[in-house]
Write a structure and sequence with these properties.
The protein is mainly alpha-helical and 122 residues long. It has one domain. Helix content is 84%, strand content 0%. It is built from four helices and no strands. Helix 1 runs antiparallel to helix 4 and helix 3 runs antiparallel to helix 4. The longest helix has 29 residues.
């Protein structure tokens, strides 16, 4: 778990830096509160990974069900949150949505990569 935490921390720092470069370039789609979104995805990824580890102890079928179910629930909740923010605050809707999508892609790709690397052999 320490190795995962280190890798996740490095991913968070790299993704924060890359997104910050978007702001430096003067893009009109930069969302200034992006560190909060990155922190949210950091915490969600930690819990997701811990759940994967726990489900693997209960067997392969449980692991597959947990992975598919947790991924679907996570996606639906994030989409619902983005829609709510977009409908209630139109001024930041596009920037918030693009920022959330950016971090969702980064952290989801990391989850798949680390899951295949760590759990694919079992």
């Amino acid at each position: 778990m320490k190795n995962f935490f280190l890798q996740l921390s490095i991913l968070s720092i790299v993704s924060l830096g890359l997104y910050h470069l978007i702001g430096v370039t003067g893009s009109p789609y930069y969302f200034s509160w992006h560190p909060l979104i990155a922190g949210f995805f950091f915490v969600v990824t930690m819990f997701f990974h811990k759940g994967l580890q726990n489900s693997l102890e209960k067997g392969n079928q449980h692991f597959i069900r947990y992975y598919m179910g947790a991924t679907a629930v996570k996606l639906m909740l994030i989409m619902l949150f983005v829609i709510i923010v977009a409908l209630t605050n139109k001024a930041i809707a596009m920037n918030f949505t693009l920022c959330t999508f950016f971090y969702y892609l980064f952290f989801s790709s990391f989850e798949v990569w680390i899951s295949m690397k760590q759990f694919g052999k079992k």
